[in-house]
């Protein structure tokens, strides 16, 4: 169900959301969180689609915010989407003129009360998410440095302004690698003395994984560049030889250990909807990400 509201108000939007919920026959209490998406016209379709897919696991009220330039007075347009095979509701808001500078005042009346708030910047990189008005409203603040023009500089800015509750999809992308590496290290009897992470040059996930490994293993790890896609190889230097996890195709990794046959492990690169669903599973501060983000500044810059 799609409802268009032109030159509207938050009062009318709230009423339309209530009507749509009533027509679907479901209570608003079925919503477990509010998801604010800060995006633009070019990215709104992909962002809303990812949120709709993630809401199958986490029913939420999705509030998309698009700031539009206007030489006239402030104006608010809205598209309200309900049903369409997914739980929850979506309101796509276009804020024109000076109103775009006060998006938090527009959003606050539309939030489901007594429900956690997550703010996700899709393609728009604030230097300090917690200082943004829409970041202040949220318990969890999600960015994606991989979409920044200069990912390395974006990581440095996030590190300088980090606050508990911040997270980044570049860190979320490292979850399968971290799980595999943790299992590999647990099975390794020889002492690990260092290693390297090989990834695309402008790949912040590679930088964060390098920092995490160095901290976890208390050993020097270097960051090397490859043609990709994403992270292509991680090498652990041990007293018994090299342990290598190689993933040249972005899908299947090969684990090679001294004196043992190679083992193949599924290690797919994930879609945005999967990354978002993972982040929505936890609303508490990710302390390990905060530590990796702090340490990443000490790695020689290769991410742009």
Number of strands: 14
Number of domains: 2
Content-based structural category: alpha/beta
Helices and strands, in order, run as: EHEHEEEHEHEHEHHEHEEEEEHH
> What is the fold named in CATH at topology level of the largest domain?
Rossmann fold
Mean pLDDT: 91
Q: Termini separation (Å)?
A: 43 Å
Our estimate of the beta-strand percent is: 25-35%
Order of strands, main sheet, comes to: 1-4-5-3-2-6-7-8
Radius of gyration: 22 Å
Give helix % range. Answer: 25-40%
Q: Describe the largest sheet.
A: 8 strands, mixed
- The 3D shape can be described as elongated
Which stretches are low in confidence, meaning pLDDT under 50 for 5 or more residues running?
Answer: none
The total count of helices amounts to 10
In the CATH hierarchy, the architecture of the largest domain is 3-Layer(aba) Sandwich
Q: Quick one: CATH class of the largest domain?
A: Alpha Beta
Structural account:
This protein is of the alpha/beta class and 304 residues long. The protein has ten helices and 14 strands. The protein has helices spanning 10-24, 41-54, 103-107, 133-136, 151-160, 169-172, 175-187, 204-217, 272-280, 287-295; strands at residues 2-5, 33-39, 60-68, 75-82, 89-96, 117-121, 140-143, 166-168, 192-200, 221-226, 231-238, 241-246, 252-256, 263-266. An eight-stranded mixed sheet has the order 1-4-5-3-2-6-7-8, with helices on both faces. Strands 10-9-11-12-13-14 form a six-stranded mixed sheet, with helices on one face.
């Amino acid at each position: 169900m799609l409802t268009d509201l032109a030159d509207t108000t938050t009062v009318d939007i709230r009423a339309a959301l209530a009507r749509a919920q009533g027509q679907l026959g479901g209570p608003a209490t079925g919503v477990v969180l509010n998801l604010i998406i800060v995006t633009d016209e070019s990215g709104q379709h992909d962002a809303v689609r990812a949120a709709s897919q993630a809401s199958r696991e986490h029913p939420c009220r999705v509030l998309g915010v698009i700031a539009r330039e206007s030489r006239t007075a402030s104006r608010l347009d809205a598209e309200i989407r309900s049903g369409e095979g997914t739980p929850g509701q979506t309101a796509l808001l276009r804020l024109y003129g000076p109103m775009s500078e006060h998006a938090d005042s527009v959003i606050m009346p539309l939030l489901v009360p007594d429900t956690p708030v997550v703010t996700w910047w899709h393609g728009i990189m604030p230097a300090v998410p917690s200082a943004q008005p829409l970041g202040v409203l949220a318990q969890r603040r999600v960015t994606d440095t991989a979409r920044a023009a200069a990912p390395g500089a974006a990581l440095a800015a996030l590190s300088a302004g980090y606050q508990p509750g911040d997270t980044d999809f570049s860190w979320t992308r490292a979850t399968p690698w971290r799980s595999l590496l943790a299992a590999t290290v647990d099975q390794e009897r020889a002492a690990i003395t260092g290693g390297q992470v090989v990834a695309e040059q402008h790949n912040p996930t590679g930088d964060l994984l390098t920092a995490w490994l160095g901290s976890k293993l208390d050993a020097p790890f270097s960051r090397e560049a490859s043609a990709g896609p994403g992270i292509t190889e991680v090498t652990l230097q041990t007293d018994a030889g090299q342990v290598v996890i190689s993933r040249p195709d972005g899908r299947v990794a090969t684990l090679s250990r001294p004196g043992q046959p190679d083992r193949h492990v599924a290690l797919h690169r994930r879609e945005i909807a999967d990354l978002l669903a993972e982040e929505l599973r936890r609303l508490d501060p990710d302390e390990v990400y905060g530590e990796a983000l702090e340490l990443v500044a000490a790695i020689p810059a290769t991410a742009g």
